[in-house]
Amino acid sequence: MNKIYDNFLNLELTTTIKEEKDGYYAFENTIFYGEKGGALGDIGTINDLAIVDLKWEDDTLYHKVDGILSDPIKLKVDADTRYINTAVQTALHIMDGYYAKLGLKIVAIGVHQNNQWYEVDSKNLPDNHLDEVQKFMNQVIRDNIATEIEYVSGKDYPNLNYQKFDEVRIIKFKDLDEQPCGTLHLHNTSQIQSFVVLDSEKTSRGTRIFITCNLVTDYRLKEYYETIKTVSKQLSVGKHEIIDALDNVISLNKTLKKELDNIKKELLQYKVADILKTEDKIINFDTNDSNELRSISQALLNSLKETKALISVIDNETYMAIISPAEKARELLESIKQDINVIGGGSTKIVSGKVNISKEELVSVLDKYIN
């Protein structure tokens, strides 16, 4: 166990190379923590070169940079990332203890900066549960509870899973939580700084509760503020008027959608009338929407007396529809498929689909079957 991890504020260290293999370096000592035990790995630099990977082999951490290292080795951990990772790890330890006293268990966690959450093994939490968690953590942060670290002999530890280790590291926060853990922790609970309960959702295993912790709260607050500022500017209203303005936009959008639907229906009738005027059985139909091809086929069905085919070119792809009042559309489609590949289908009265040939080639094929 690297006892340098007992102080999460150890952010700089000068050391020497112990081993190098395949571009990865192990050092005589390190302050970097690689992802392990539910805690994210550090980021930072080695001799001013950014770390590109950290990996564990047993209890040895190997470091990789985009370059070649030589002694002396100067390690520097990014302070903000270290603080965030350590804060959420500490907070979730305390949450473990909180739920254990409720007879519940945290079964999964998310610790990435833009996705912090924990999942409890119950779908039936009380309605005021999120408020109670928030009050509890606010008090924990105010109480400034010290983190206690103790090392005990593995053979003396009561949990059989840990008796294979020479030494077991115990993390304790008074009577809130006590458990073995080798990850980094804050010195006290006030260093969590903030713990904000955002939302919850039911999952297959229970309830997922979304949070922000430490500097992540600052980042997300700024992000949300910038979003609100942008929306406020785009709507030309004050920030406190956004909700009312959005309600007006939604209402106006519904009205305009109805008006647009009515206009589309009128336009469709004009297009139907134009098609009915022609005696051609294969008709070029100008549209940029395959849905409109299907809509006009439906509109034409009750007015046509003989089979017709519509052809449209949309985004350089050829589409067709066959309308058959005599209910031979499926039969015609099967015949056409003997000559060309058609992706599509339909009823005995209307079929539609996409083909892998040009409009001109499709006309030649349809000419054989629609007469």
Task: Provide structural commentary.
By secondary structure, this protein is α+β, with helices and mostly antiparallel strands. Helices cover 34% and strands 29% of the residues. The protein has seven helices and 19 strands. It has helices at residues 79-101, 129-143, 215-235, 242-277, 290-301, 329-336, 359-369; strands at residues 12-15, 17-21, 24-27, 44-46, 49-57, 60-65, 73-77, 106-112, 115-120, 148-153, 167-173, 177-180, 195-202, 207-213, 282-284, 308-314, 317-323, 342-346, 350-355. The model has no long low-confidence stretch (mean pLDDT 94).
Q: Secondary-structure map with pairings?
A:
Blueprint: E1 12-15, E2 17-21, E3 24-27, E4 44-46, E5 49-57, E6 60-65, E7 73-77, H1 79-101, E8 106-112, E9 115-120, H2 129-143, E10 148-153, E11 167-173, E12 177-180, E13 195-202, E14 207-213, H3 215-235, H4 242-277, E15 282-284, H5 290-301, E16 308-314, E17 317-323, H6 329-336, E18 342-346, E19 350-355, H7 359-369
Parallel strand pairs: 15-16
Antiparallel strand pairs: 1-7, 2-3, 4-5, 4-7, 5-6, 8-9, 9-14, 10-11, 11-12, 13-14, 16-17, 17-19, 18-19
